[in-house]
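Question (not urgent): is this output format expected?
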Amino acid sequence: MLLLGHKHATSLQPSTLQHYLDHRRRYEILLWVGFFMIQWIANVWVIVFDIERVDLDVRVWEIIVWEGSSGLMFGLLIPLLLAFDRAFPLRLDRWRRGVLAHLLFTVPFSVAHVVGMVAIRKLVYAAVGGSYDFGPWPVELFYEYLKDFRTYLLLLALIYLYRFILLRLQGEAQFLAEGREEAPPEPVVDRFLVKKLGREFLVKVNDIDWIEAAGNYVNLHVGQRLYPLRETMTNIEARLTDAGFVRVHRSAIVNMDRIAEISPFDTGDAEARLETGAVVPISRRYRSQLREQLA
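Got this back:
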């Protein structure tokens, strides 16, 4: 079903979803915390049950520390995993490069996890007057790597599943007519096609307030809504050159008609406040270009 006009898209953006998108980073952190807390509790419960079954002399607090230190380190490494995935995404057109990069990255990822985990355990044991023995490092590192490899794949799968679900709920924009990837970018027509939950509607280019870089995507900010578009900032800039948009930052392009005021800083940078209230950074590199375009 094709819904023409941007105003029709408003009813398709539930307030709950918009609230989530407005506070997305906070909720994502809470989701990860919840995930690792559940993992921690479940693992402790299973290990305690196994130890009691075979009657091993291990105290419960030690198991809590072991599993807690491991989960904490995995949580701290999530930003590193996300940053690496932004640099080497798993894409169909470059899947070999992405897969190989991630396979190689599992090694330093596991080493960082183990070193941090052992350090936390040694600190806790020392605080209670004991000592923690990790065992022979070559053997234990290999053993931990085998477990960390599976965990890495699980975390990566969860990240891509989350992105897929969010894109389905949020809607994803695309150009009305796509050419071959190797072809030079051509100017867009006056609308983008947005697909969301099995529906399609059009968003006028003039309705876009600004564009933000987001990994493999650029985010089209349209009022209070945000639509991901699988495109690079360089290509989208080239496509929108004659449509009243100007690059103001390596991660931001603005619609000049939406700029309400510009506040310069002593550093040479600046920020643009749009009519919607959004604030977009302006770097020194692009200030002169913006000044020329506005003139």
